[in-house]
Amino acid sequence: MKKIRLISIILLCAIIFSSCGSGESPNQTPSDTNSGEREEIGIALPFSSTDSLNPYIAVTKVNQELSMLLYDPLIKLDDTFSPVYYLADEISIDKQRVTVTLKAVRFTDNTLLTADDVKYSFNQAKKTDNKYKPQFDNIKTCSIFDQKTIIFDLYKYDPYFVNLLDFPIFKNGTAETKDSNDRTIPPIGCGRYVIDSENSFRLIPNKSYYNGKAKFDYISLIDTPDNESLSHMVEVNAIDMIYSEFSDNTIPKMNGTQKSIPLTNIVYLGMNPNNPLLSKTEMRVAISAALSRAEIVKSAYFSFASAATGIFPANWKEANELQHISSEQNIKQVVAYLEQLGYNSKDTDGYYVAQTGERITFSLLYNKENISRKLAAELIAQQLKQVGIEIIVTEAESFKDYNEMIKNNDYDIYIGEIKLNKNMDLRDVFLKNVISGTSETYTSEMISAFYENNADISTVISACASEMPIIPICNRKGVFIYSNAVEDVNISISDIYTDI
Q1: Which residues pair with 73 in a beta bridge?
Q2: CA spacing 20 to 30 A to 252: which of 158, 204, 344, 439?
Q3: 304 and 447, same domain (yes or no)
Q4: Which helix (H) or strand (E) is 448 found in, with range?
Q5: Are residues 381 and 428 in the same domain?
Q6: What is residue 180's predicted lDDT score, i.e. its pLDDT?
């Protein structure tokens, strides 16, 4: 079967390239040189023909990404995680009530966008198991004020709730539409592109799009039903763009321009709350000062990350000027904090020792299956050795074993990763004990005060930096690659195809 599939893929590639003509780009359709017509410009993107383009039903990553070309959201986030309004004209937050006023936008069937459509799309997203579902946990009700206004009532105040309104909107009642052969067809949207009625493997511009002209005259959809076929299409340059969150530490083998896209993923050091030495703030801050985050980013994450400057992602506009954790090792700070704990001498191997002669020694747990964490663990051990702290690296054989060891407190320090929601809500991290031993700290008190509107974000950042309940290392990034036939593009955590 694998051989047959590979032959099919090769034949498909041959058809794609032979249709281009000798010397022509595979993504351009040459016009008749005598006709004087403009040459059409297009690109090819991956697609799964066995999956849906309904964003709330699609299970493949490629179709979830493609669906954003068909359906616009209320907002999209830019590369600083700041909201850019799309279907929303105005958004206001008053305590636990969020009011959204809609722009005058029409769907591709020429009907006007209304609050009914937003509520319908919200309900579709909430009831299905998709990537948007966690964004709605704090929404108590979604109601219609009038046909241009939708209201979200929240369980708890959230100053950055607007960031969660990037879910796709489609026309009320069209999610279950079927064709003459009883096959479900994509809902009606108001995005940049529509499915070509004459060719279901092709997208064409939405001529009535409200937000500018599409960059390409068409988008060819290249069927990639599984990772094997997708990898092959990338290698033979049959597609023009590909995105990876770099979670498996592999970069797609595609020729072209690479761009990194900021994520809300924070790689950190977690501390065992039962370790008496690590329960001291001075020790945690000393360990933080011992890290060369810049070196870890370069050598362990191959620069597909940025050095953490605080508890929030470094590029988040609301926090980037308030966070000041250094990316470089600061040995003077390490020495100062250890002196406060009574460590003034070292043994013959260069490690700090207590008056009893006992070294400062900690185990460092990581997941063997993640190569970046393995490399990071080795670097951290070297960096802490440089300042006189001994680290014994412990390797968990599987992710299951890793989680079990953390659950059983079978570690001193571990390398972990948090994926914050797009509103950067820290409550799941600290107040629900995702990270052990932080629920009684001053940091948690300040986080609670912030979400009760009794403290500002600088107070939260300051508390996290001074107490270090966790030690941020870096913020991971995804990788976006596009072919040389495509001009420079902008990308977004909300929509990797934002700029087309």
Answers
A1: 168
A2: 204
A3: yes
A4: helix 442-451
A5: yes
A6: 66
Element (DSSP H or E) covering residue 46: strand 40-47
Q: Any idea which of 206-215, 294-303, 439-448 has the lowest mean pLDDT?
A: 439-448
pLDDT band at 22 (very low <50, low <70, confident <90, very high): very low
Amino acid letter, 2: K
Q: Specify whether 132 is located in the same domain as 209.
A: no
Exposure string for 364-395, b = 16+ CB within 10 A, e = fewer: bbbbebbebbbbbbbbbbebbeebbbbbeebe
pLDDT band at 16 (very low <50, low <70, confident <90, very high): very low
User: CA-CA distance, 59 to 56, in Å (whole number)?
Assistant: 8
Same domain, 431 and 496: no
Phi, psi (5° rounding) for residue 84?
Answer: -115, 125
* Site of tokens 């001529």: 207
Q: What is the mean pLDDT of residues 351-369?
A: 93
DSSP H helical ranges for 306-441: 331-340, 371-386, 399-407, 427-430
How many angstroms separate the CA atoms of 366 and 376, rounded? Answer: 9
257 inside domain: no
Domain span at 105: 72-190
- Give the Cβ contact number of residue 439 at 10 Å: 15
Q: How far is CA 401 from CA 20, 92, 369, 397, 407, in A?
A: 52, 46, 11, 6, 10
Number of domains in the chain: 3
Pick left, alpha or beta for residue 341 (phi over 0 → left; psi -120 to 50 → alpha; otherwise beta): alpha
pLDDT of 184 over the 50 cut: yes
Domain shared by 308 and 179, yes or no: no
Query: CA 467, CA 457: separation in Å to the nearest integer?
Result: 16
Together in a domain, 225 and 279: no
What is the structure's pLDDT at 431? 59
At 237, is the secondary structure helix, strand, or coil?
coil
Task: Provide the β-strand partners of residue 199.
Answer: 196
- pTM for this one? 0.86
Contact yes or no for 232/3 (Cβ under 8 A): no
Cβ 323 vs Cβ 466: under 8 Å: no
Strands 470-482, 305-307: pairing kind: antiparallel
Judge whether residue 186 has pLDDT over 60: yes
Q: What angle do CA 290, 261, 289 make, to 5 degrees?
A: 10
